[in-house]
Amino acid sequence: MNSIITARKESVITYLKETFNDVGNITLFAARFFKEVIKPPYEIKEFMKQCYVIGYKSLPLVTITGFIMGLVLTLQSRPTLAKFGAESWLPSMVALSLIREIAPVITALICAGKVSSGIGAELGSMKVTEQIDAMEVSAINPYKYLVVTRILATTLMIPLLVIYADGIGIIGGYVGINIHSDVSLYRYISQVLESITFLDIFPATMKTFFFGFFIGMIGCYKGFNAANGTESVGKAANSAVVTASLTIFIIDMLAVQLTDLFF
Amino acid sequence: MIQETTTIAPAPVPKTNSPVIEIKELYKSFGKNEVLKGVTFSVNKGENLVVLGKSGSGKSITIKCLVGLVVADEGEINVFGTDITKIDTAELNKIRVRIGFLFQNAALYDSMSVRENLGFTLKRHAKDLSAEELENQIKDVLESVGLAEAIDKMPSELSGGMRKRIGLARTLILKPEIILYDEPTTGLDTITSREISELLLEIQKKHKTSSIIITHDMACAKHTADRLVILKDGVIHTEGTYEELEKSDDEWVRSFFI
Description:
The complex is a heterodimer.
Chain A: H1 2-37, H2 44-54, H3 59-83, H4 90-128, H5 131-137, H6 142-180, H7 185-195, H8 198-224, H9 231-262
Helix pairs in contact in A: 2-6, 3-4, 3-6, 4-6, 4-7, 4-8, 4-9, 6-8, 8-9
Chain B: E1 19-30, E2 33-44, E3 48-53, H1 59-66, E4 74-79, E5 82-83, H2 89-96, E6 99-102, H3 114-125, H4 131-144, H5 160-172, E7 178-182, H6 190-207, E8 210-214, H7 218-224, E9 227-232, E10 235-240, H8 242-246, H9 251-254
Parallel strand pairs in B: 3-8, 3-9, 6-7, 7-8
Antiparallel strand pairs in B: 1-2, 1-4, 4-5, 9-10
Helix pairs in contact in B: 3-5, 4-5, 6-7
Protein backbone atom coordinates (compact mmCIF):
# COMPACT_ATOMS: atom_id res chain seq x y z
CA MET A 1 0.00 0.00 0.00
CA ASN A 2 2.79 2.34 1.04
CA SER A 3 4.67 1.64 -2.19
CA ILE A 4 1.57 2.56 -4.23
CA ILE A 5 1.22 5.86 -2.35
CA THR A 6 4.95 6.60 -2.84
CA ALA A 7 4.71 5.80 -6.55
CA ARG A 8 1.65 8.10 -6.94
CA LYS A 9 3.41 10.84 -5.01
CA GLU A 10 6.47 10.53 -7.23
CA SER A 11 4.41 10.62 -10.43
CA VAL A 12 2.54 13.75 -9.22
CA ILE A 13 5.86 15.41 -8.33
CA THR A 14 7.31 14.48 -11.74
CA TYR A 15 4.19 15.85 -13.49
CA LEU A 16 4.38 19.12 -11.53
CA LYS A 17 8.11 19.42 -12.22
CA GLU A 18 7.52 18.90 -15.96
CA THR A 19 4.66 21.41 -15.99
CA PHE A 20 6.68 24.11 -14.22
CA ASN A 21 9.65 23.31 -16.45
CA ASP A 22 7.42 23.72 -19.51
CA VAL A 23 6.01 27.03 -18.25
CA GLY A 24 9.55 28.29 -17.59
CA ASN A 25 10.73 27.23 -21.03
CA ILE A 26 7.70 28.81 -22.77
CA THR A 27 8.38 32.05 -20.87
CA LEU A 28 12.02 32.07 -21.99
CA PHE A 29 10.96 31.21 -25.54
CA ALA A 30 8.50 34.14 -25.53
CA ALA A 31 11.09 36.48 -23.99
CA ARG A 32 13.48 35.61 -26.83
CA PHE A 33 10.80 36.76 -29.30
CA PHE A 34 10.86 40.32 -27.90
CA LYS A 35 14.66 40.33 -28.08
CA GLU A 36 14.83 39.02 -31.65
CA VAL A 37 11.90 40.95 -33.14
CA ILE A 38 13.63 44.33 -32.92
CA LYS A 39 17.04 43.16 -34.19
CA PRO A 40 17.75 43.33 -37.95
CA PRO A 41 17.76 41.63 -40.42
CA TYR A 42 13.99 41.59 -40.87
CA GLU A 43 12.53 38.63 -42.74
CA ILE A 44 9.82 40.66 -44.51
CA LYS A 45 9.25 38.17 -47.35
CA GLU A 46 8.72 35.22 -45.01
CA PHE A 47 6.48 37.39 -42.78
CA MET A 48 4.29 38.32 -45.77
CA LYS A 49 4.13 34.66 -46.81
CA GLN A 50 3.01 33.66 -43.32
CA CYS A 51 0.37 36.43 -43.28
CA TYR A 52 -0.98 34.98 -46.52
CA VAL A 53 -0.93 31.39 -45.21
CA ILE A 54 -2.36 32.22 -41.78
CA GLY A 55 -4.77 35.00 -42.78
CA TYR A 56 -5.93 34.50 -46.34
CA LYS A 57 -5.91 30.69 -46.27
CA SER A 58 -8.08 30.69 -43.12
CA LEU A 59 -10.78 32.86 -44.72
CA PRO A 60 -13.02 30.03 -46.03
CA LEU A 61 -13.11 28.33 -42.63
CA VAL A 62 -13.74 31.59 -40.76
CA THR A 63 -16.44 32.59 -43.28
CA ILE A 64 -18.41 29.37 -42.81
CA THR A 65 -18.09 29.26 -39.02
CA GLY A 66 -18.75 33.01 -38.68
CA PHE A 67 -21.92 32.79 -40.75
CA ILE A 68 -23.18 29.72 -38.83
CA MET A 69 -22.38 31.42 -35.48
CA GLY A 70 -24.57 34.42 -36.37
CA LEU A 71 -27.36 32.32 -37.86
CA VAL A 72 -27.56 29.80 -35.01
CA LEU A 73 -27.27 32.47 -32.31
CA THR A 74 -30.22 34.32 -33.83
CA LEU A 75 -32.36 31.21 -34.24
CA GLN A 76 -31.64 30.01 -30.69
CA SER A 77 -32.18 33.40 -29.01
CA ARG A 78 -35.34 34.35 -30.89
CA PRO A 79 -37.84 32.13 -28.96
CA THR A 80 -36.59 33.37 -25.56
CA LEU A 81 -36.75 37.05 -26.59
CA ALA A 82 -40.17 36.46 -28.16
CA LYS A 83 -41.50 35.27 -24.78
CA PHE A 84 -40.73 38.73 -23.36
CA GLY A 85 -41.87 40.52 -26.47
CA ALA A 86 -38.34 41.71 -27.07
CA GLU A 87 -37.78 40.38 -30.59
CA SER A 88 -36.82 43.84 -31.73
CA TRP A 89 -33.73 43.56 -29.53
CA LEU A 90 -32.51 40.60 -31.54
CA PRO A 91 -30.08 42.50 -33.86
CA SER A 92 -28.49 44.31 -30.90
CA MET A 93 -28.18 41.14 -28.88
CA VAL A 94 -26.66 39.15 -31.72
CA ALA A 95 -24.19 41.91 -32.61
CA LEU A 96 -23.07 42.46 -29.01
CA SER A 97 -22.71 38.75 -28.27
CA LEU A 98 -20.71 38.21 -31.43
CA ILE A 99 -18.41 41.21 -31.07
CA ARG A 100 -17.74 40.95 -27.35
CA GLU A 101 -17.35 37.22 -26.91
CA ILE A 102 -18.46 34.61 -29.41
CA ALA A 103 -16.60 35.66 -32.57
CA PRO A 104 -13.23 36.32 -30.83
CA VAL A 105 -13.25 33.06 -28.85
CA ILE A 106 -14.64 30.76 -31.57
CA THR A 107 -12.37 32.24 -34.28
CA ALA A 108 -9.35 31.95 -31.99
CA LEU A 109 -10.24 28.32 -31.19
CA ILE A 110 -10.60 27.52 -34.88
CA CYS A 111 -7.24 29.14 -35.55
CA ALA A 112 -5.70 27.22 -32.64
CA GLY A 113 -6.85 24.06 -34.40
CA LYS A 114 -5.79 25.08 -37.88
CA VAL A 115 -2.86 27.45 -37.45
CA SER A 116 -1.22 26.41 -34.17
CA SER A 117 -1.29 22.70 -35.05
CA GLY A 118 -0.04 23.51 -38.56
CA ILE A 119 2.90 25.51 -37.21
CA GLY A 120 3.63 22.81 -34.59
CA ALA A 121 3.65 20.06 -37.24
CA GLU A 122 5.66 22.09 -39.76
CA LEU A 123 8.39 23.15 -37.35
CA GLY A 124 8.34 19.73 -35.64
CA SER A 125 8.94 18.07 -38.98
CA MET A 126 11.73 20.54 -39.77
CA LYS A 127 13.29 19.80 -36.40
CA VAL A 128 13.30 16.00 -36.76
CA THR A 129 14.61 16.14 -40.33
CA GLU A 130 17.45 18.44 -39.17
CA GLN A 131 16.31 21.35 -41.37
CA ILE A 132 16.44 23.70 -38.37
CA ASP A 133 19.98 22.46 -37.60
CA ALA A 134 20.90 23.02 -41.26
CA MET A 135 19.86 26.68 -40.93
CA GLU A 136 21.84 27.06 -37.74
CA VAL A 137 25.07 25.61 -39.18
CA SER A 138 24.67 27.94 -42.18
CA ALA A 139 24.84 30.82 -39.66
CA ILE A 140 21.16 31.68 -40.25
CA ASN A 141 19.11 32.35 -37.14
CA PRO A 142 16.24 29.81 -37.38
CA TYR A 143 14.38 31.48 -34.51
CA LYS A 144 14.25 34.75 -36.39
CA TYR A 145 13.33 33.22 -39.74
CA LEU A 146 10.81 30.64 -38.53
CA VAL A 147 9.50 31.76 -35.15
CA VAL A 148 9.48 35.57 -35.20
CA THR A 149 7.76 35.71 -38.61
CA ARG A 150 5.05 33.23 -37.59
CA ILE A 151 4.31 34.83 -34.21
CA LEU A 152 4.11 38.29 -35.81
CA ALA A 153 1.82 36.96 -38.52
CA THR A 154 -0.59 35.30 -36.08
CA THR A 155 -0.57 38.38 -33.81
CA LEU A 156 -1.66 40.56 -36.74
CA MET A 157 -3.86 38.16 -38.67
CA ILE A 158 -6.03 36.71 -35.85
CA PRO A 159 -7.52 40.16 -34.95
CA LEU A 160 -8.26 40.77 -38.65
CA LEU A 161 -9.89 37.35 -38.94
CA VAL A 162 -11.97 38.09 -35.82
CA ILE A 163 -13.15 41.44 -37.24
CA TYR A 164 -14.04 39.64 -40.47
CA ALA A 165 -15.88 36.92 -38.48
CA ASP A 166 -17.82 39.69 -36.63
CA GLY A 167 -19.05 41.04 -39.98
CA ILE A 168 -19.91 37.63 -41.41
CA GLY A 169 -21.64 36.65 -38.15
CA ILE A 170 -23.79 39.79 -38.28
CA ILE A 171 -24.79 38.90 -41.85
CA GLY A 172 -25.62 35.38 -40.61
CA GLY A 173 -27.80 37.01 -37.94
CA TYR A 174 -29.63 38.98 -40.62
CA VAL A 175 -30.38 35.78 -42.54
CA GLY A 176 -31.53 34.12 -39.29
CA ILE A 177 -33.94 36.96 -38.49
CA ASN A 178 -35.40 36.89 -42.00
CA ILE A 179 -36.24 33.19 -41.77
CA HIS A 180 -39.14 34.08 -39.44
CA SER A 181 -39.77 37.74 -40.12
CA ASP A 182 -39.16 40.36 -42.76
CA VAL A 183 -36.56 42.96 -41.72
CA SER A 184 -34.79 45.16 -44.26
CA LEU A 185 -30.99 45.09 -44.33
CA TYR A 186 -30.89 48.87 -43.77
CA ARG A 187 -33.01 48.64 -40.62
CA TYR A 188 -31.04 45.65 -39.33
CA ILE A 189 -27.65 47.31 -39.84
CA SER A 190 -28.89 50.60 -38.33
CA GLN A 191 -30.04 48.79 -35.22
CA VAL A 192 -26.73 46.89 -34.97
CA LEU A 193 -24.67 50.08 -35.32
CA GLU A 194 -26.81 51.94 -32.78
CA SER A 195 -26.22 49.30 -30.14
CA ILE A 196 -22.43 49.02 -30.56
CA THR A 197 -20.15 51.43 -28.73
CA PHE A 198 -16.38 51.90 -28.76
CA LEU A 199 -16.18 50.13 -25.39
CA ASP A 200 -17.69 47.00 -26.93
CA ILE A 201 -15.18 46.85 -29.75
CA PHE A 202 -11.94 48.04 -28.11
CA PRO A 203 -11.42 45.46 -25.30
CA ALA A 204 -12.72 42.63 -27.51
CA THR A 205 -10.23 43.52 -30.25
CA MET A 206 -7.36 44.01 -27.81
CA LYS A 207 -7.69 40.50 -26.43
CA THR A 208 -7.51 39.03 -29.94
CA PHE A 209 -3.94 40.32 -30.29
CA PHE A 210 -3.06 38.22 -27.24
CA PHE A 211 -4.96 35.23 -28.69
CA GLY A 212 -2.93 35.60 -31.89
CA PHE A 213 0.37 35.97 -30.07
CA PHE A 214 -0.16 32.85 -27.98
CA ILE A 215 -1.53 30.78 -30.89
CA GLY A 216 1.67 31.47 -32.82
CA MET A 217 3.98 31.24 -29.85
CA ILE A 218 2.66 27.90 -28.57
CA GLY A 219 2.68 26.35 -32.06
CA CYS A 220 6.28 27.49 -32.60
CA TYR A 221 7.41 26.38 -29.13
CA LYS A 222 5.95 22.89 -29.49
CA GLY A 223 7.37 22.45 -33.00
CA PHE A 224 10.77 23.96 -32.24
CA ASN A 225 11.18 21.68 -29.22
CA ALA A 226 9.92 18.46 -30.81
CA ALA A 227 12.03 15.46 -29.81
CA ASN A 228 13.64 13.28 -32.44
CA GLY A 229 11.44 10.83 -34.35
CA THR A 230 8.36 11.19 -36.52
CA GLU A 231 6.04 10.38 -33.61
CA SER A 232 7.00 13.64 -31.95
CA VAL A 233 5.68 15.64 -34.96
CA GLY A 234 2.14 14.40 -34.25
CA LYS A 235 2.66 15.00 -30.53
CA ALA A 236 3.86 18.56 -31.18
CA ALA A 237 0.80 19.34 -33.34
CA ASN A 238 -1.62 17.80 -30.87
CA SER A 239 -0.02 19.43 -27.85
CA ALA A 240 -0.02 22.81 -29.64
CA VAL A 241 -3.82 22.67 -30.17
CA VAL A 242 -4.57 21.60 -26.61
CA THR A 243 -2.27 24.16 -24.97
CA ALA A 244 -3.30 27.00 -27.30
CA SER A 245 -7.04 26.29 -26.75
CA LEU A 246 -6.60 26.22 -22.99
CA THR A 247 -4.57 29.44 -23.11
CA ILE A 248 -7.33 31.16 -25.13
CA PHE A 249 -9.87 30.42 -22.40
CA ILE A 250 -7.50 31.64 -19.67
CA ILE A 251 -6.75 34.88 -21.57
CA ASP A 252 -10.48 35.36 -22.21
CA MET A 253 -11.25 34.99 -18.51
CA LEU A 254 -8.54 37.49 -17.58
CA ALA A 255 -9.66 39.89 -20.32
CA VAL A 256 -13.27 39.86 -19.07
CA GLN A 257 -12.08 40.60 -15.51
CA LEU A 258 -9.84 43.44 -16.69
CA THR A 259 -12.59 44.88 -18.90
CA ASP A 260 -14.97 44.94 -15.93
CA LEU A 261 -12.29 46.64 -13.86
CA PHE A 262 -11.28 49.36 -16.32
CA PHE A 263 -14.27 49.99 -18.63
CA MET B 1 29.47 -10.65 -67.54
CA ILE B 2 30.41 -8.06 -65.00
CA GLN B 3 31.86 -4.95 -66.50
CA GLU B 4 34.77 -3.45 -64.68
CA THR B 5 34.51 0.27 -64.12
CA THR B 6 37.67 2.28 -64.41
CA THR B 7 38.01 5.29 -62.19
CA ILE B 8 40.51 8.03 -62.62
CA ALA B 9 42.52 8.47 -59.47
CA PRO B 10 42.39 12.10 -58.34
CA ALA B 11 45.59 14.07 -58.15
CA PRO B 12 46.98 14.12 -54.62
CA VAL B 13 45.96 17.09 -52.54
CA PRO B 14 48.77 18.88 -50.74
CA LYS B 15 48.38 18.28 -47.02
CA THR B 16 50.18 20.28 -44.43
CA ASN B 17 50.76 19.46 -40.82
CA SER B 18 49.00 22.58 -39.59
CA PRO B 19 45.73 21.45 -38.00
CA VAL B 20 42.54 23.30 -38.93
CA ILE B 21 40.59 21.35 -36.30
CA GLU B 22 41.92 20.31 -32.92
CA ILE B 23 39.69 18.55 -30.43
CA LYS B 24 41.12 18.05 -26.95
CA GLU B 25 39.58 15.99 -24.14
CA LEU B 26 35.98 16.41 -25.30
CA TYR B 27 33.26 15.23 -22.90
CA LYS B 28 29.52 15.07 -23.48
CA SER B 29 26.76 13.34 -21.51
CA PHE B 30 23.01 13.12 -22.02
CA GLY B 31 21.60 12.56 -18.56
CA LYS B 32 23.39 9.50 -17.19
CA ASN B 33 24.55 8.42 -20.64
CA GLU B 34 28.19 9.47 -21.08
CA VAL B 35 28.72 9.59 -24.86
CA LEU B 36 32.09 11.28 -25.18
CA LYS B 37 34.67 10.62 -22.47
CA GLY B 38 37.71 12.59 -23.54
CA VAL B 39 37.86 12.52 -27.33
CA THR B 40 41.09 13.97 -28.73
CA PHE B 41 42.10 14.24 -32.38
CA SER B 42 43.02 16.77 -35.04
CA VAL B 43 42.47 17.34 -38.76
CA ASN B 44 45.24 18.81 -40.88
CA LYS B 45 44.75 21.29 -43.69
CA GLY B 46 43.64 19.56 -46.89
CA GLU B 47 43.15 16.23 -45.12
CA ASN B 48 40.18 13.85 -45.30
CA LEU B 49 39.75 12.25 -41.89
CA VAL B 50 37.32 9.34 -41.67
CA VAL B 51 35.72 8.63 -38.29
CA LEU B 52 34.60 5.05 -37.73
CA GLY B 53 32.82 3.51 -34.78
CA LYS B 54 29.79 1.49 -33.81
CA SER B 55 26.33 3.10 -33.87
CA GLY B 56 25.84 5.28 -30.81
CA SER B 57 29.57 5.67 -30.22
CA GLY B 58 29.30 9.47 -30.48
CA LYS B 59 30.60 10.13 -34.00
CA SER B 60 27.76 12.46 -35.03
CA ILE B 61 27.76 14.17 -31.61
CA THR B 62 31.47 14.94 -32.08
CA ILE B 63 30.94 16.79 -35.37
CA LYS B 64 27.80 18.49 -34.03
CA CYS B 65 29.96 19.83 -31.16
CA LEU B 66 32.33 21.21 -33.82
CA VAL B 67 29.67 23.56 -35.22
CA GLY B 68 28.02 24.34 -31.90
CA LEU B 69 24.84 22.35 -32.58
CA VAL B 70 25.58 20.38 -29.43
CA VAL B 71 27.28 22.09 -26.52
CA ALA B 72 30.12 20.03 -25.06
CA ASP B 73 30.29 19.57 -21.27
CA GLU B 74 34.06 19.88 -21.14
CA GLY B 75 37.03 20.10 -23.46
CA GLU B 76 38.54 22.29 -26.14
CA ILE B 77 37.45 22.56 -29.79
CA ASN B 78 39.88 24.66 -31.81
CA VAL B 79 38.67 25.50 -35.32
CA PHE B 80 40.98 27.76 -37.37
CA GLY B 81 42.79 28.42 -34.10
CA THR B 82 39.72 29.62 -32.20
CA ASP B 83 38.29 27.67 -29.29
CA ILE B 84 34.60 27.63 -30.24
CA THR B 85 33.53 26.63 -26.72
CA LYS B 86 34.61 30.06 -25.47
CA ILE B 87 33.01 32.38 -28.06
CA ASP B 88 29.54 33.91 -28.43
CA THR B 89 27.00 33.13 -31.18
CA ALA B 90 28.06 36.06 -33.39
CA GLU B 91 31.69 34.89 -33.37
CA LEU B 92 30.61 31.28 -33.83
CA ASN B 93 28.55 32.25 -36.90
CA LYS B 94 31.66 33.76 -38.51
CA ILE B 95 33.33 30.35 -38.17
CA ARG B 96 30.19 28.46 -39.23
CA VAL B 97 30.17 30.11 -42.67
CA ARG B 98 33.65 28.65 -43.23
CA ILE B 99 32.42 25.14 -42.38
CA GLY B 100 30.07 23.07 -44.52
CA PHE B 101 27.90 20.35 -43.00
CA LEU B 102 26.28 17.57 -45.00
CA PHE B 103 23.53 15.98 -42.93
CA GLN B 104 22.73 12.28 -43.06
CA ASN B 105 19.42 12.88 -44.88
CA ALA B 106 20.69 16.04 -46.60
CA ALA B 107 18.20 18.19 -44.57
CA LEU B 108 16.95 20.07 -47.63
CA TYR B 109 14.26 22.66 -46.90
CA ASP B 110 11.06 20.85 -47.92
CA SER B 111 9.07 23.96 -48.75
CA MET B 112 11.71 25.36 -51.13
CA SER B 113 12.78 24.33 -54.63
CA VAL B 114 16.42 23.36 -55.30
CA ARG B 115 17.11 26.92 -56.53
CA GLU B 116 15.60 28.41 -53.36
CA ASN B 117 17.45 25.91 -51.14
CA LEU B 118 20.75 27.10 -52.56
CA GLY B 119 19.82 30.77 -52.86
CA PHE B 120 18.43 30.94 -49.32
CA THR B 121 21.85 30.49 -47.74
CA LEU B 122 23.80 32.46 -50.33
CA LYS B 123 21.51 35.52 -50.29
CA ARG B 124 21.98 35.91 -46.55
CA HIS B 125 25.76 35.81 -46.68
CA ALA B 126 26.47 37.60 -49.97
CA LYS B 127 24.04 40.51 -49.84
CA ASP B 128 25.77 42.52 -52.58
CA LEU B 129 25.20 39.82 -55.21
CA SER B 130 22.89 40.79 -58.08
CA ALA B 131 20.05 38.44 -59.06
CA GLU B 132 22.02 37.40 -62.14
CA GLU B 133 25.19 36.65 -60.17
CA LEU B 134 23.15 34.68 -57.65
CA GLU B 135 21.57 32.60 -60.42
CA ASN B 136 24.97 31.98 -62.05
CA GLN B 137 26.52 30.81 -58.78
CA ILE B 138 23.60 28.46 -58.15
CA LYS B 139 23.92 27.01 -61.66
CA ASP B 140 27.71 26.65 -61.31
CA VAL B 141 27.52 24.77 -58.04
CA LEU B 142 24.74 22.52 -59.36
CA GLU B 143 26.86 21.72 -62.38
CA SER B 144 29.77 20.83 -60.11
CA VAL B 145 27.61 18.14 -58.45
CA GLY B 146 26.21 17.06 -61.82
CA LEU B 147 22.61 18.12 -61.21
CA ALA B 148 22.10 21.32 -63.21
CA GLU B 149 18.79 19.98 -64.57
CA ALA B 150 17.29 19.66 -61.06
CA ILE B 151 17.26 23.43 -60.41
CA ASP B 152 13.46 23.79 -60.44
CA LYS B 153 12.65 20.53 -58.68
CA MET B 154 11.26 20.26 -55.18
CA PRO B 155 13.13 18.05 -52.64
CA SER B 156 10.21 15.56 -52.68
CA GLU B 157 10.91 14.91 -56.38
CA LEU B 158 14.54 13.93 -55.79
CA SER B 159 16.00 10.47 -55.20
CA GLY B 160 18.23 9.73 -52.19
CA GLY B 161 21.43 10.20 -54.17
CA MET B 162 20.17 13.42 -55.75
CA ARG B 163 19.22 14.78 -52.33
CA LYS B 164 22.77 14.12 -51.09
CA ARG B 165 24.24 15.89 -54.13
CA ILE B 166 21.93 18.90 -53.68
CA GLY B 167 22.79 18.92 -49.97
CA LEU B 168 26.43 18.97 -50.97
CA ALA B 169 25.78 21.77 -53.47
CA ARG B 170 24.08 23.81 -50.73
CA THR B 171 27.14 23.24 -48.56
CA LEU B 172 29.58 24.17 -51.34
CA ILE B 173 27.82 27.37 -52.34
CA LEU B 174 29.42 29.19 -49.39
CA LYS B 175 32.87 27.93 -50.43
CA PRO B 176 33.72 26.29 -47.09
CA GLU B 177 37.26 25.48 -46.02
CA ILE B 178 36.14 22.54 -43.88
CA ILE B 179 33.34 20.11 -44.72
CA LEU B 180 31.78 17.74 -42.20
CA TYR B 181 30.02 14.75 -43.75
CA ASP B 182 27.57 12.82 -41.57
CA GLU B 183 27.24 9.41 -43.22
CA PRO B 184 27.29 10.67 -46.81
CA THR B 185 26.57 7.28 -48.41
CA THR B 186 24.07 5.78 -45.95
CA GLY B 187 20.93 4.49 -47.63
CA LEU B 188 22.37 4.61 -51.13
CA ASP B 189 23.04 1.78 -53.55
CA THR B 190 26.63 0.69 -54.25
CA ILE B 191 26.96 2.60 -57.52
CA THR B 192 25.54 5.85 -56.12
CA SER B 193 27.71 5.44 -52.99
CA ARG B 194 30.76 5.13 -55.23
CA GLU B 195 29.70 8.25 -57.17
CA ILE B 196 29.26 10.23 -53.94
CA SER B 197 32.67 9.03 -52.67
CA GLU B 198 34.26 10.19 -55.91
CA LEU B 199 32.46 13.51 -55.61
CA LEU B 200 33.90 13.92 -52.09
CA LEU B 201 37.41 13.41 -53.47
CA GLU B 202 36.75 15.79 -56.35
CA ILE B 203 35.61 18.46 -53.91
CA GLN B 204 38.73 17.97 -51.79
CA LYS B 205 40.88 18.33 -54.90
CA LYS B 206 39.03 21.25 -56.48
CA HIS B 207 38.23 23.34 -53.40
CA LYS B 208 41.22 22.29 -51.25
CA THR B 209 38.91 21.50 -48.36
CA SER B 210 39.67 19.64 -45.14
CA SER B 211 37.00 17.14 -44.15
CA ILE B 212 35.72 14.88 -41.44
CA ILE B 213 33.75 11.98 -42.92
CA ILE B 214 31.60 9.90 -40.62
CA THR B 215 30.72 6.62 -42.23
CA HIS B 216 29.96 2.93 -41.79
CA ASP B 217 30.63 2.34 -45.48
CA MET B 218 34.13 0.86 -45.67
CA ALA B 219 34.27 1.29 -49.45
CA CYS B 220 33.69 5.01 -48.95
CA ALA B 221 36.28 5.06 -46.14
CA LYS B 222 38.86 3.30 -48.32
CA HIS B 223 38.17 5.60 -51.24
CA THR B 224 38.20 8.92 -49.40
CA ALA B 225 40.34 8.59 -46.26
CA ASP B 226 43.79 10.05 -45.86
CA ARG B 227 43.64 8.92 -42.24
CA LEU B 228 41.09 7.12 -40.07
CA VAL B 229 40.23 7.30 -36.38
CA ILE B 230 38.04 4.76 -34.60
CA LEU B 231 35.81 5.74 -31.68
CA LYS B 232 35.17 3.20 -28.93
CA ASP B 233 33.57 3.74 -25.51
CA GLY B 234 33.64 7.52 -25.92
CA VAL B 235 37.36 7.84 -26.71
CA ILE B 236 39.57 7.48 -29.79
CA HIS B 237 40.56 3.84 -29.72
CA THR B 238 43.05 3.92 -32.57
CA GLU B 239 44.13 5.90 -35.62
CA GLY B 240 46.12 5.35 -38.80
CA THR B 241 45.83 4.95 -42.55
CA TYR B 242 43.37 2.50 -44.07
CA GLU B 243 46.16 0.03 -44.85
CA GLU B 244 47.62 0.26 -41.34
CA LEU B 245 44.31 -0.33 -39.60
CA GLU B 246 43.34 -3.13 -41.96
CA LYS B 247 46.42 -5.04 -40.78
CA SER B 248 46.00 -4.07 -37.11
CA ASP B 249 46.81 -6.61 -34.39
CA ASP B 250 43.59 -5.60 -32.65
CA GLU B 251 40.85 -8.02 -33.70
CA TRP B 252 38.10 -5.48 -32.89
CA VAL B 253 39.71 -2.93 -35.23
CA ARG B 254 40.12 -5.55 -37.97
CA SER B 255 36.42 -6.45 -37.65
CA PHE B 256 35.54 -3.12 -39.36
CA PHE B 257 37.46 -4.19 -42.47
CA ILE B 258 35.89 -7.63 -42.98
